[in-house]
Amino acid sequence: MGASRLKNRDQSSGLRDQAPRLTLSALLSCRRVPHPFRALCGKGGKAQQAINRILVLSGFAILLLVSGCRQDMQDQPKLIPQRGSAFFADQRGARPQAAATVARGQLRADSYFYTGVVQGANGHREEKNEMPFPVTIEVLRRGQERFNINCSPCHSRVGNGLGEIVQRGYKPAANFHDQVRLSQPISHYFYVMSHGYGAMPDYSAQLAPVDRWAVAAYIRALQLSQAATVADLPQGAPVRSLKEIARERGLPESFAEPWKLPATAVQALPPEAKQGRPALAPANAPNPKLLIPKGKQRKQDKQNKQNKQNKPAPAAAR
Questions:
Q1: Which one of 91, 129, 250, 251 is CB 3.0 to 4.6 Å from 255, fit for a cystine?
Q2: What angle do CA 88, 90, 93 make, to 5 degrees?
Q3: Are residues 146 and 265 in the same domain?
Q4: What band does 148 get if pLDDT is binned at 50, 70 and 90?
Q5: 45 and 163 co-located in one domain
């Protein structure tokens, strides 16, 4: 019984050894392919068709990979501003503007709206005391919002030039209630916001032209509110003092008095009553004294003396 089992196992292993085998190398070369698999390797064989497809797709993939690696990202075919270009005959990348044309959004037909100045009779630019559009309560509210955000850190909410930044050492800003600022036309504020003035930078990036005009209108309204008198009120309107309102709100009476310039501010000058209400310290002295170094002063005196000596004497009258 056991011998017959061993005999059957040997016979089955011999059959497996004699069975035809299909290898990948034989299939690719179509040579020495066993008889049962020769149909797959023929001209119309399924294996040959699959191999052909794989070879074609692989060729396309390699071609795309090679072509993509040759075009570097820093070598893109494009025009770079302020650089030359071999594409045009004049070798200039920036093309000249077409004659008698204006870019979109840059027509600016209303010059006064965008500049705040007009051409004067003498040929110079002049400021005007008028708005380029009607002033409504919405315009004043917009101006108040922009003023409190952009202007109050230096000029304060009431426009007296003593904002929080000034109290921490920055140069005192302009006081909108002194006689100099009250006499300036309304377009002056628009021009200063557009170009800056002194230590103040321009705010053309933060404020659009329409917002600059709204702020200028609010500054004028702020000037009127801080200098209002009882005669300016309608007849019969109730009148209350700021000190009385301060007491009702639990604030000291000094809350309604003029602000004092802190000692940390630059050029701390004593307040002057003629600066308007509220009477506050000006940013600069009205007549600053110019100090000349002693060495330069002596040199200047010597030069003036030589000029007097070299000056010819006047001819005698006949």
A1: 251
A2: 60
A3: yes
A4: very high
A5: no
Q: Does 97 or 154 have the greater pLDDT score? A: 154
Query: Tens digit of pLDDT for each residue in 292-302?
Result: 566 666 777 77
Q: Is residue 311 part of a domain?
A: no
HSE (side-chain half, CA atoms, 13 Å) at 138: 3
Alpha-carbon dihedral sign for residues 30, 34, 36, 37 = negative
Number of domains in the chain: 2
> Which DSSP helix (H) or strand (E) runs through 307?
helix 294-310
* Residue 126 domain flag: no
- Tell me, yes or no, whether 222 lies in a domain: yes
Reported as half-sphere exposure (CB side, CA atoms, 13 A), residue 9 has a value of: 6
Crossing angle of helices 209-226 and 186-195, in 10° steps, is 130
pLDDT confidence of 122, banded at 50, 70, 90? confident
Note down the domain range covering 51.
2-67
What is the reported pTM?
0.52
Give burial (CB, 10 Å; 0-12/13-18/19+) of 104.
Answer: exposed
Shortest CA distance to 224 belongs to which of 273, 274, 277?
Answer: 277
Position 123, amino acid: G
3 state SS of 40: coil
* Structure letter (DSSP) for residue 260: P
Tell me the range of 62-66, 212-216, 223-227, 262-266 where mean pLDDT is highest. 212-216
Q: Is residue 129 part of a domain?
A: no
